[in-house]
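Technical note accompanying the year-one report. For the benefit of new consortium partners, we illustrate the data format agreed upon in the data management plan: each record pairs a sequence with a structure-token string. No post-processing was applied to the example shown here.
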Amino acid sequence: MSSGMLLALSQWGPTADWLMAAAIAAGAFLLLVLLRLLVRQRYSGLRETERIEFAELSLGVLPRTAGVFFVAVSAYLGLRFIELPVRASSVVNAAISIDVF
């Protein structure tokens, strides 16, 4: 980003922070969905072999990952760029911990 654009964003105050967090979350979600598509394509080729490889086991998890997990991870990544109150930060950390495990 250019310094002029950063200066313009700084005049927006907290709104710019939330817009940046939303952009980061959307980008992370898009990246995760694209990664899942690529892994599905690659994994389908690995399944055709008779021998089970380590990559097959680890790559078999991502294609079956639910979209809700991607939304939670994306939201978490976006919220990391916003300074939240301690209580809200604790809730976000607890929520992502529950979602991951």
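Partners are asked to follow this layout when depositing records. Residues 14-100 form one domain.
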